[in-house]
Please model this.
Amino acid sequence: MKNVVIVPIDGKQSGSGILGTVHNLLQCETARSMISHFKINDGVNTPDMSGPMLISKIKAVIKAAESKAGIFLDFKLADTSDTNWNTVKHFVDQGLPPDILTVRESLSTSGFLKLRTMLPDTKIALVSILTDTPEEECRRRNGMFPAVKLLNDITNIQAEYEKRRNETSPKRAFDMVVCSPLELDLLVRNFPYQYQYIVPGIRDSWMAAGQQARISGIAAALNHGATYCVAGSQMLKGAPNDGVSAEESRKLTALEIEKANYTFICPEDPMKVLLHCGGSYESPLGSIGEILGPLVGYAGKYGLEGKNFVGSVYFNFAKAEQNPIALAFYGAYLANEIREYFDVIPDAVAGMANGGVKLAAAVARELGCRDVTAYKKVIQPADVKAGKKEESILEINRHDVYPDDTIIIIEDVCNNFSTTEKAQKLIESLDAQLVGIACAINRDNEWYWKGLPVISASHRPSPQYKQEDPIVSTLIKQGKIVWKAKEGWSKLMEAMEEANPK
Model:
């Protein structure tokens, strides 16, 4: 189950009542498997215990239930920088910084900087327009609809923040954006890799709308890019007037989450996106760190016989590229890295078949340049007994490459640069110039290849071995190797699951 539900604990008359609610929810296996955070607002002002004492006790209840749920202080801070800090300082001084903290768009740049500096491990979430505000009211009061106000606030706050931040400051004024389901799609399209999104207003078909004015079901919100969804009544009350108990509502919510095409976007660590898409394999290890297998075959070759290198790690980017939100994330992330490295945008990006084709299209869309594809032509099938993968050449025969074009090739994973070598020869044969390589994951130790930059979303050096190496030779003889990792992905995932059962 995906931990994507934020449960608001509001309107309680006492701290003990809040603790009882948290305890009861975490005793429910269905609820525990969904909850990512508990959101606290007015609960820090109950008469029977202080805010820090309440949070300390909630964390103890979470730990006792063996849950990983975090604390979300929904304070919507909107005061001066010192006053805001004094509000949060009571918790920090007790060793209780929140995992998420909300602030309003009216916060000054110095206010953002102070919170970012004093709360390095807290995610700051921007609140621009409250979700109980109807669209027409927002338009009348602000001169724009909610989605446009959010776009303006995000852009303008970040622009002012850039003027004030220094090299040691976090790159962005905030990490997350709170928005209703109706604004989510536009925000994800405009900011596909910069932020995570918290979405209140979750009301599935069996629930009444309540106080929220802009709502949707939880699966729809997750499908459109929500990182976390706030679901209070749906988790705590259900719809008793319609015969749906709280427990039944939680079960229905779990079913909706399971059928959603959810993507966890982590701007500070792109590798986590691939991991959450199920695209990362690492061979199980024994008690003294020995590789247990299965091994995987790599594209790189060695020796006169042209045997393939093998290894214990494999990054399957196909698992990410089939998800539109994950693909857009990687495309935008790489495009931004390319802009920062090059003074001039290349004339074209060339996607290397098969893994780089979709990624190249996503990068080209962000850069505004042409996208050409280098297709594989198999000239020699794989020979498993001889330890050889298939032989292929590259061809660009569908798209235009012009003389003197500057081109960046796009691959899903770089390591041996065997495809890169072929691509360079192909591009130069067309009188164009290869100026760089970009990939989702760089497995090689180096950041450059033949003097050209290797730009990546994640740099994860991974060892590779000759088949005769004692570290791997016995495993190969035992047949504990998958030569075509993508085709044998289920076998690799089963090996990891058996070694580390959930």
Observations:
- The chain has a mean pLDDT of 92.
- The two ends are 11 Å apart (CA to CA).
